């Protein structure tokens, strides 16, 4: 019988989108198991703040340097692709208008070793960065999260209002008299 290893972020109440990596323990070597380090999550800051093998571009955020891989950034974003094509001298890239932590959140979606999730705390910055760098996969993931969030809100709204007919009006009690008002469709 094969054991299945799932590397997941903490289970949530369904309000986040996350990447799930699954593999069979028969197919991975001891070295790979050690690299994966299932018990300890990789620290994003530590990973990018130190130069690693195969990193070939420095990105500077308000005097803080992170180390990245051109190939991964170029595959995710046409903006990065054009920037690297124009930058033949392998000079550092400077972004003083982007928060380092926000950028690291986006990098979690680009690098497959991380298990990122979208939630109410990071959705705004991820939407902004996905549009700025034209990172379509992240844009799509953010859209899915927003649609799920809105459908949850709509479901809660539909369950909490009183209606004469199924979902087409709600009762408001203004100045002691009940008025029936048409419900506006949210989506």
Automatic annotation (TrEMBL):
Transmembrane segments: none annotated. Residues 55-111 form the BTB domain. Gene3D superfamilies: Potassium Channel Kv1.1, Chain A (3.30.710.10). Residues 165-187 are annotated as: Disordered. Signal peptide: none annotated. It comes from the Eukaryota. It holds the Pfam family BTB. This is BTB domain-containing protein.
């Amino acid at each position: 019988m094969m054991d299945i290893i799932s590397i997941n972020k903490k289970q949530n109440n369904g309000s986040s989108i996350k990447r799930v990596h699954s593999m069979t323990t028969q197919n991975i070597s001891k070295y790979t198991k050690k690299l994966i380090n299932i018990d300890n999550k990789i620290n994003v800051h530590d990973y990018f703040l130190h130069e690693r093998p195969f990193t070939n571009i420095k990105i500077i955020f308000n005097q803080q340097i992170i180390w990245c891989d051109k190939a991964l950034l170029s595959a995710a974003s046409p903006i990065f692709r054009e920037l690297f094509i124009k930058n033949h001298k392998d000079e550092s890239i400077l972004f003083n208008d982007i928060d380092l932590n926000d950028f690291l959140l986006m990098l979690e979606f680009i690098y497959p070793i991380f298990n990122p999730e979208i939630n109410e705390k990071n959705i705004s910055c991820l939407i902004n960065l996905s549009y700025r760098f034209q990172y379509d996969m992240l844009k799509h993931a953010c859209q899915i999260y927003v649609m799920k969030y809105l459908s949850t809100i709509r479901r809660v709204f539909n369950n909490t209002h009183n209606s004469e007919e199924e979902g087409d009006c709600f009762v408001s009690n203004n100045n002691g008299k009940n008025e029936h008002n048409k419900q506006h469709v949210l989506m």
